[in-house]
Design a protein that fits this description.
The protein is mainly β. It has a single domain, classed as Maltoporin, Chain A (Beta Barrel), CATH 2.40.170.20. It is 4% helix and 52% strand.
Length: 713
């Protein structure tokens, strides 16, 4: 793919003449009535932004926190809801994690060098931005193709960035190159990163935190009179990625995709449409240098979909949006035998999911209205039909001697005897209004009814849930392999799960300097009531072996009613702006979230009260900054999952950058300046670097000196 892109680049560059201005056609989502935080990474990458973990760009967004999940596989949580509950859209593609541990979530497929814009909708997502989710949304747009302005002229652009982080000796590089005339644009983007294990604040190596990966994409775009047609092809190779809060590591993830899109207009009608296909081959085992053992696990997935969104400006005060989206997902998950002897992981192949199927068809309509100079609204309805099915399964063995999977034959037979076909008819409704009280004061109020159907693993993972015999030691390993929560527990699905239905009320009040935009404050309280929240019930436990596997729970997914509430507070101010000292700005974000089951007990992984303050200075070629964040102790924990409490902590980071010339910039950052030792509130437990007798919370990274050098051509 790389060679094809470079040959195409060379062919167009043969027509080269002087560079011209960029011209592009875009169809942007309307954000006037939404609680949207728009992230636009700097045109020049920095030591902070260069990483394969694009979820890291969300770290400073109000209402967003991150589950730690491998070196570049963090999971964003919005107002306490994460993973499949959050809608992730990457250039119109909805990518489902093809792994029982969710080691390859959607955002792990796009690195930060390729991101042009991230829109984060906290809490209430308009129906036009997707269904089958109950949390917020993250809408990612990669860099768009560029075209020459005049016929017969060509533009050529390229930039290269290299980066290094001392803690974990992480190093990598990105290359972006494009060539275009007024009709055709060809782009290649490559990214590679390799990291060793990092050290915590005490100088201890945190094993199984290493990784190595490469991303490559090529885009061919053609400009029509009223739109742009683009074909994007991509491939990701992950050589290895450690997961210290899981029993397994990822030793291979090869993914290829194609995405054909059109953005343009037919008369007054704006169209945004695409069709896509992604194939994923995923392999888990244990990195031999990090932990002992051998248990090969394979997953293959094919996902394809189509989306069409039309926007019609009906009048000067009203706009209609309508469209449809379709997603087809196929999944096979199998574990080859480790031994040919009956009584362990063999002699048969363990089929965790056999021909798993999940199809979703959604239709929506939405109205955006400007009722007066001050009052506007967005109202939408949506329906999604979700159909699911799977085939028969088998365990490692067909007899029942005492071993870690001794009940597999009984469980498999009981599961196979049941009807696996399920269909959910889901309905969503959203209504938002905004009132501009004055030039410096706005109010927003919104309500949403959102629905999410279970994923394939929540419904169809079967081992441990159907035969009723869980009294084995040291652990039901087949159950422990179903776990994307990082809590070391074992999970089993539930064919009787109902879709989650969330009713959310959210309000936003903002005050700002209407004249110069030199300061602003925004507060957003919210409340969500979830019917049939997919949580768990305890069906067994593990006695332990005296050194590990202590206090491990065996859990089955089950519907419960729950409620979540909290508030986000953010603000910014220009402290100075003069020729001597440049421009100084202060930014802050404060967040509070709580979640409880109605029958008692905290929901899992609720981020404790936290705050971050950033002081930035821009003066000539220099840019400088200091970040200070504080996180309170996490005392509200899920006792059903044996979730550990974590102490509070405070961290300080420093940043500086210098524009050496028009085309060269050097950037330096020091993270965790004081080398603070701390536990990650949303990091789960460490099943690799454990203490005797119990698992301890995952430890965060210690001090790191980071650099990045960017050159443009």
């Amino acid at each position: 793919m790389k060679s094809v892109a470079l040959l195409s680049l060379a062919a167009i560059s043969a027509l080269a003449s002087e560079p011209l201005a960029i011209q592009k056609i875009t169809v942007e989502a309307d954000t006037s009535q939404q609680e949207v935080s728009r992230i636009i990474p700097a045109a020049t990458p920095t030591a902070k932004t260069m990483t394969g973990d694009s979820a890291a760009l969300l770290a400073d967004v109000p209402g967003v926190s991150l589950y730690s999940n491998g070196g570049f596989a963090s999971l964003p949580a919005i107002h306490g809801m994460a993973d499949d509950r959050v809608k992730i859209d990457i250039d119109g593609m909805q990518i489902t994690s093809a792994c029982p541990n969710h080691m390859n979530p959607a955002l792990s497929y796009i690195d930060t060098s390729k991101v042009a814009v991230m829109d984060v909708i906290a809490g209430i997502t308009p129906v036009s931005e997707g269904g089958d989710s109950i949390g917020g949304s993250v809408i990612v747009k990669s860099k768009e193709p560029v075209f020459a302005k005049n016929r017969g002229e060509v533009i050529i652009n390229a930039d290269v960035t290299g980066f290094y982080r001392s803690n974990s000796a992480a190093r990598g590089a990105s290359l972006n190159a494009s060539a275009a005339n007024d009709k055709i644009s060809v782009t290649y983007a490559g990214f590679a990163e390799k990291a060793a294990n990092y050290k915590d604040g005490n100088g201890k190596i945190v094993k199984a935190t290493l990784h190595q990966m490469q991303n490559n994409t090529a885009t061919l775009a053609y400009k029509l009179d009223e739109g742009i047609v683009s074909l994007k092809l991509g491939k990701q190779n992950v050589d290895f990625e450690g997961f210290p809060n899981q029993y397994m590591d990822m030793l291979g993830n090869e993914s290829t995709y194609g995405n054909l899109s059109y953005k343009g207009r037919i008369g007054k009608l704006l169209l945004d449409a695409n069709i896509f296909r992604q194939n994923t081959d995923h392999y888990m085992n244990k990195i031999s240098t990090e932990r002992p053992g051998n248990m090969p696990m394979y997953t293959q997935a094919q996902e394809s979909g189509a989306n069409i969104k039309a926007t019609l400006p009906y009048s000067s005060t009203q706009t209609f949006k309508f469209g449809a989206d379709y997603d087809r997902y196929r999944l096979n998950d199998w574990w080859p035998p480790v031994t040919t002897t009956v009584g362990g992981m063999g002699p048969n192949t363990f089929w965790n999911l056999n021909d798993g199927q999940r199809d979703r068809l959604g239709i929506f309509a939405e109205s955006v209205s400007q009722w007066s100079e001050k009052l506007s609204s967005t109202i939408g309805i949506r329906t999604d039909r979700v159909s699911m099915n799977t085939g028969s399964v088998t365990g490692y063995n067909t007899v029942t001697p005492p071993n870690m999977m001794s009940n597999d034959p009984v469980d498999a037979n009981a599961f196979n005897a049941l009807d696996h076909k399920k269909q959910d008819n889901n309905y969503d409704f959203t209504a938002m209004t905004k009132y501009e009280y004055s030039d410096s004061n706005d109010f927003e109020l919104g309500f949403a009814r959102k629905t999410r159907s279970p994923n394939l693993y929540e419904r169809y993972s079967w081992a441990g849930g159907y035969g009723g015999n869980l009294n084995v030691a040291p652990i039901r390993m087949d159950m422990a392999m179903i776990n994307w929560f990082g809590d070391a527990n074992g999970y089993v699905g539930n064919l009787n799960l109902k879709p989650e239905v969330a009713n959310t009320i959210s309000a936003t009040a903002s005050w700002h300097d209407g004249a110069s935009g030199s300061w602003g404050v925004k507060i957003t309280p919210y409340y969500t009531k979830v019917q049939n929240y997919i949580d768990v019930k305890k069906i067994g436990s593990v006695a332990g072996d005296g050194t590990k596997f202590t206090n491990i729970q065996l859990l089955q997914f089950e519907n419960h009613d729950a409620h979540l509430f909290g508030a986000d507070l953010s603000g910014f101010a220009t402290l100075w702006d003069n020729s001597e000292n440049g421009v100084g700005t202060l930014k802050s974000v404060i967040g509070y979230t709580r979640g409880f089951r109605d029958d008692g007990g905290s929901l899992y992984h609720m981020m404790p009260f936290h705050a971050k303050v950033s002081l930035n200075r821009l003066s000539g070629a220099w840019s400088n900054g200091i970040d200070a964040q504080a996180v309170m102790a996490k005392d509200s924990v899920d006792t059903v999952r044996s979730e550990p409490k974590t102490p509070g902590y405070a961290l300080v980071d420093l940043r500086t950058g210098y524009q050496i010339s028009k085309n060269i910039k050097f950037d330096v950052a020091v993270t965790n300046l004081f080398n603070k030792a701390y536990a990650l509130p949303l990091g789960g437990v460490d099943v690799v670097n454990y203490s005797a007798g119990s698992y301890t919370p995952m430890q965060g990274m210690g001090r790191s000196f980071n650099t990045a050098l960017n050159m443009k051509f």
